[in-house]
Amino acid sequence: MKEILKKRNLLEAEAETGNNTFSDILSKVDSNVVRDTLMLLRENESESGRIKVGYTTIYPQCFTRGHIHAPLEEVYFITSGKGIMEIEGEKFEAEAGDVVYIPFAKFHRTENPYHLPLSYVWITVKKEG
Ligand SMILES: O=P(O)(O)OC[C@H]1O[C@](O)(CO)[C@@H](O)[C@@H]1O
After folding, report:
1. Which residue, 105, 111, 123, 69, is CA-closest to 86?
2. Which among 7, 35, 73, 103 is placed 20 to 30 Å from 14, CA to CA?
């Protein structure tokens, strides 16, 4: 007997495949480090010169390279989608509505193994002095 669907969540839905889909385009480039950042506030635009704000989107099946910035602490506020955050080797899922704190000098990387873009606002604050 046929199983009739009662409910599906957008985040778990399968993506259509084929020509000109994002996964098709991604398969033609040599890296899955595909993300865009819009700069919302640069350090030289704030009074303290210590705060920076951006809005990043990590495309489906993509990730950031990961990095450390010793003099900066950082907060992510996930605005849509979900993904995997890695902080100093610890991995956990983060989704829209979550706030993630990244302490000074900790390696952090973000993965989006899903089919929807993952977007978040991030704020870095530089140590005083
Ligand atoms: O250079 P990577 O590791 O790919 O990181 C990019 C990510 O880091 C950020 O600088 C935020 O820390 C954003 O541009 C983006 O979320």
Report:
1. 111
2. 35
